[in-house]
Amino acid sequence: MTKMRRLGVLTSGGDGPGMNPAIRAVVRTALEHEIIPWGIQRGFQGLIDNDMQEMTARSVGGIIQRGGTLLGTARSPEFMTERGRMEALRNLNKNSINALIVIGGDGSMRGALELHKQGFPVVGVPGSIDNDVYGSEMSIGVDTALNTLLQAVDRIKDTASSHRRAFLIEAMGRNCGYLALMGGLAGGAEMVLIPEVPFELEEVLNGLRDAYIKGKAHCIIIVAEGASHRATEIKEFLDTHKQETGFTTRVTILGHVQRGGSPSAFDRILGSRLGAAAVQALIEGQQGIMVGISKSQAAYTPLEEVVSKGKPLDMNLYRIARILEK
Ligand code: ADP
To answer: Does residue 281 share a domain with residue 132?
Structure first.
């Protein structure tokens, strides 16, 4: 690889708290090594639109505590086409950028891999609240999103107990039940419904009835958005069987509330570490890899592996949650 002189950084796909600390770390680590950092706006779309500019240590000042991403993010269907990617490479060359760091989720790692296949030096950093990216024990944003979910669970529990209600709390996470499961474990939920464990509506009804008979003052059910049934659908079913459960049911869909907010200490530190490690990896001549965290250390995984392997949920934690919901 020719000496890295200009390094591009972009955030792509779903945003998450902690992306700003990662951008800040990339920019300042690059400058430390006399590499000029360039910020690309709105993910891969900014590469195609040639929407990018040089960044300085000051342009990332005061952002470590801010949620979202300073660079903006996007889903770019154009980048999924050969023509779009060609345009992206052309603009990178035009601006003399000869390496790129992509911060994003599973989809963004696929995009990064496409650039790598074209021979462009690229390193990925996992940023996704879903925690579904293979090659990193935690993705940037997961911890903050989980704490936001937990706050909501605690608050809802207060009101649920006062009224003897059941609450279905729908959590984000696409096809991964991580957030819902961890939110359930940490929040002491009575039931956790996740995509990894398919279920029938009758099972929820039975669970609700059991909770009532056991004398519980509330019944908190966390439903992952990718579970067999959506929270609203479950409520409709439970409403038609109201007499059999003892609880009235309410639904709270947390939605994008979980994406926003100031990053937790964990996410600020993870973003800072992985951003710095990604620059370091490129300096070492690594490319086509993602820098994740494994056993508290930065770990490299080939992008090819990242996108081809799923990240299964630790089902032992599900079993623990089931025992503790008693
Ligand atoms: P996330 O990175 O959060 O998983 P997406 O799955 O929406 O979010 O992916 C973000 C962007 O990455 C997409 O809009 C697209 O531009 C790019 N991307 C995803 N998959 C591919 C692919 N197979 N080839 C090229 N680009 C891709």
So the answer is: yes
